[in-house]
Design a protein that fits this description.
Blueprint lengths: L2 H16 L3 E5 L3 E6 L7 E5 L2 E5 L5 E6 L11 E5 L5 H13 L9 H9 L5 E3 L14 E2 L7 H21 L2 E3 L6 E3 L3 E3 L6 E3 H13 L20 H8 L2 H17 L4 E3 L6 E3 L7 E3 L6 E3 L13 H30 L1 H16 L5 E5 L3 H16 L2 E3 L6 E3 L6 E3 L6 E3 L14 H4 L6 H9 L5 E4 L4 E5 L3 H7 L2 E3 L8 E3 L6 E3 L6 E3 L10 H5 L6
Helix pairs in contact: 10-12
Length: 530
């Protein structure tokens, strides 16, 4: 066969293989083939510290030009073009094609195509190094330069998303709500999470959510375990109702404005008014020009005090009277239970005498915070509460059945703690504090007891021991972090002896104070719960 006949046969073969990807440019001597990479599995696209999963890549262009000596003596001429290959990568590929073994009288274009396809395996790394200062290679067209790498990365992601949408629309899909099998063109796939639903189900879901007052990030994917918020353009595409979408935008904007400290609403026309954070009570609406007081929302008044301040003061006085009444009632109740109190005090004194001597040194600047932490820990244990088994946040139960659901992580569990308020023991801050007693007054009471605390003016510290009810309540609850550089005093809450330092996150045992790694320490040495 002559060279022309072999060239014509090769063109026919390539046309049958690549179909629409084959384009004849000039008679039977020049043509272009768009080469698709066979991505059997998704691969990683890497650019600096960014990584994306890619399922589709744009075509690679190979232009072939025949001459009279092909295939009898030499291979054909070629041009390479690919916008996501760097200049240096295309130049190296040109060299590989030149070095590819050529058998005389045998066509070679398909072998070249297979060699090009092997350039993409399980990942594509966009080169950002400036290594394009090589010999100029005129056959390498369209390769990107390092300064355009970011644009190339975004372009490849956009192309992949477009191809996935086309593939999704060309297949039958099962709605995740109604389970009907419908065409992909009749489904809507949510961009943040990839879940998809039929238009009818998603339309009903979003409409109901908006009418119930949900907005912005509160409208999430209908999947139970998915909390990805729907995008505004997706909501507009789903509901296809300009009036309803306008309401959605209005509610979202209103919520955003309400979350700003320097925005209030005009009491007359309900427009947003920018007020600033100063102490001036004057506010002027730009829409209706209404001048009003920022506190009471009434017509602006020039008095030194706003009527709302008088109302707040009156309410505060009423509350103080109620607290005083409760405190007096508590004193009466304590007097009635004098005998029981004496027995409790005797038992507490006996418990106090049986304790081994311990003391803690506290910085005076941190004494208030430590007392508050101890008091809060006692309050947490006194109320009807227990830890969530999943996220370990303490939960209070104030009614209902034993089935509970954590509001933080959504974990469901059965309540195991006996209901009711646990009366505090005498060796506790909670027992000796009243509802209106501040931490500052408790600190003064502790510091004035010579046998309980020793104050050092030189290094501004106070040493508290466990020889009194208040001192013992503090000492038995705190343990210093074993890390010498930290020494943070951490407060124990509940019966768990595994303590994590609030400052350095060191894990240690509350009983022995040793640093621990894992839970084997509690299996061999100390009890985990006491």
């Amino acid at each position: 066969m002559t060279n022309q006949e072999k060239q014509a046969d090769e063109i026919l073969a390539l046309q049958s293989i690549f179909d629409t990807k084959f384009r004849l440019l000039h008679d039977n001597t020049q043509y272009e083939i768009s080469i698709d990479f066979d991505l059997v599995q998704p691969f990683h696209l890497r650019y600096n510290d960014k990584t994306s999963i890619i399922h589709h890549l744009p075509s690679f262009s190979l232009v072939i030009h025949y001459h009279n000596e092909y295939p009898s003596d030499s291979p054909p001429s070629f041009l390479l073009s690919c916008f996501y290959f760097s200049k240096s990568s295309l130049q190296r590929l040109c060299q590989q094609l030149d070095d590819c073994s050529f058998v005389k009288d045998e066509v070679c274009v398909f072998d070249w195509i297979e060699l090009i396809r092997q350039q993409i395996t399980n990942e594509l790394i966009l080169d950002t190094t400036n290594n394009d200062e090589q010999n100029h290679e005129p056959r390498a067209l369209n390769g990107y330069l390092t300064e355009n790498t970011d644009e190339i990365y975004q372009s490849l992601i956009s192309y992949n998303n477009e191809q996935e949408d086309k593939q999704f629309q060309n297949h039958l899909q099962t709605c995740l709500i109604c389970a009907n099998i419908i065409s992909g063109t009749d489904c809507i796939r949510l961009y943040p999470c990839g879940h998809f639903y039929c238009q009818t189900c998603l339309n009903n879901y979003v409409r109901m959510a908006i009418k119930n007052g949900r907005f912005g990030e509160r409208i999430v994917c209908p999947q139970t375990e998915c909390q990805k918020a729907l995008l505004p353009n997706e909501i507009k595409q789903i509901i296809r109702d300009d009036q309803l979408y306008e309401r959605y935008e209005r509610i979202t904007l209103q919520h955003a404005l309400e979350s700003m400290n320097d925005i209030i609403w005009c009491p007359r026309c309900h427009s947003a008014v920018l007020t600033g954070n100063d102490d001036d009570r004057l506010a002027i609406c730009e829409q209706c020009r209404f001048t009003f007081c920022k506190k009471c929302k009434e017509v602006f008044h020039s008095e030194d005090k706003c009527p709302r301040d008088y109302l707040i003061k009156h309410i505060r006085l009423q509350k103080e009277k109620q607290l005083e009444t409760i405190r007096k009632q508590q004193k009466k109740d304590r007097k009635k239970s004098t005998k029981q109190g004496q027995k409790q005090k005797a038992a507490a004194e006996k418990e106090l005498a049986g304790q081994h001597y311990r003391e803690v040194t506290i910085d005076l600047s941190e004494e208030n915070a430590l007392l508050e932490a101890v008091l809060n820990a006692e309050r947490m244990e006194a109320i009807n509460s227990q830890l969530c088994p999943n996220c370990h946040v303490r939960i209070e139960k104030n009614g209902g059945c034993l089935h509970m659901r954590c509001s933080r992580c959504g974990h469901g569990f059965c309540w195991t703690t006996a209901e009711g308020y646990n009366s505090p023991k005498m060796i506790s801050l909670l027992y000796h504090s009243s509802m209106d007693q501040s931490v500052e007054s408790m600190k003064e009471e502790i510091n004035k007891k010579i046998d309980t605390a020793k104050i050092s003016a030189e290094d501004e510290t106070v040493v508290i021991n466990n020889r009194s009810f208040l001192g013992s309540a503090i000492v038995k609850r705190v343990k210093a972090c074993p890390d010498i550089a930290c020494q943070k005093l951490n407060v124990k809450i509940g019966d768990d002896n595994l303590i994590v330092c609030e400052d350095c996150l060191e894990q240690y045992c509350f009983l022995c104070g040793e640093t621990i790694n894992g839970l084997k320490h509690f299996e061999k040495k100390c009890n985990r719960h006491t």
